[in-house]
Fold this protein.
Amino acid sequence: MKRILITGGAGFIGSHLCKRLLNEGNYVICLDNFFTGRKRNIETLLPNPNFELVEHDIIEPIDIRVDEIYNLACPASPPHYQYDPIKTMKTSVIGIINMLELAEKYNAKILQASTSEVYGDPLVHPQVETYWGNVNPIGIRSCYDEGKRCAETLITDYRRQKNIDTKIVRIFNTYGPNMAPDDGRVVSNFILQALNGMDITIYGEGEQTRSFCYVDDLVDGLIKMMNSNLSGPVNLGNPSERTIKDFAKLILEFTKSDSKISYKPLPSDDPSKRRPDITLAKTGLDWEPKIDIFEGLKNTVEYFKTLVD
Ligand code: NAD
Ligand code: UDP
């Protein structure tokens, strides 16, 4: 039985990954400081004897014997990572050093949840892994973008210098059940606004694009990456791209809501377009998303309805 550590395991993606890896017969250690994660996301896993919850902050070192580490700990929504930008940077930079030291001690494999944000406001479209990005080092998103970029550097240097088996995936916008209702991301905001009859808040003109991947597809990709001989970076995301304005209309139709659309200022450095080139994931991991937006939204809207009722 493999001992697998999932940092950020009580968060949105982490909770799905914990469940999947437990169901596949592993011993799963979920580590979280509960900054954005929630107990309710992992509640059903707690009675399982092969599941362990460790309340800990990855900016502090930790010693647990493990075979694999998925490093997901980091707030992911712009309002949450901008709440305490210094802490966000420490989580990415000091956190990954602590996890890499742990990986070295136990000769464990380590996978880093990096992000499409390393491409910043991209000048290459769709984004391919060889693109170095267009990132503002001193903007309001920098604590997250540059933190994740620095983590990629550290991982690659530990790999070169200390021969650690490392993996980097660059995750594009992912959605699904267990997203925190207050996290301010577009999927949770629009669905909750539509269900509550509140205005749908589009930032800017709504011409910016995103490409949304359902969480089950993403989790498949994470596990395939861990089990592959690739070190990455590898993009994981759904290449189906749409404008935020079209996404708002889709949510209104899907939820049969009478909500109106209202326009708010666009936050600074908000990327104008984003779509992954997933050729590498397709050829190297035999991975591509299978769940279309209608099926994904059905499950997600059902989940948010349970929070509203
Ligand atoms: P989330 O906020 O739901 O989960 C992050 C988890 O990490 C939470 O449980 C939080 O409490 C925990 N955490 C934060 N700081 C910590 C610390 N210092 N020590 C221990 N735990 C800490 O976010 P998510 O959407 O599940 O994202 C998971 C990972 O995937 C993040 O690293 C994020 O950067 C990356 N990612 C997510 C997306 C996406 O669209 N969801 C896109 C790109 C990258
Ligand atoms: N957005 C929006 N209304 C909202 C929340 C977000 O128009 O209520 C926009 C945001 O400006 C961005 C896109 O939707 O252009 C995706 O935002 P999100 O915070 O989900 O993720 P990002 O990809 O920006 O990290």
Residues 232 and 244 are 29 Å apart (CA to CA). The radius of gyration is 19 Å.
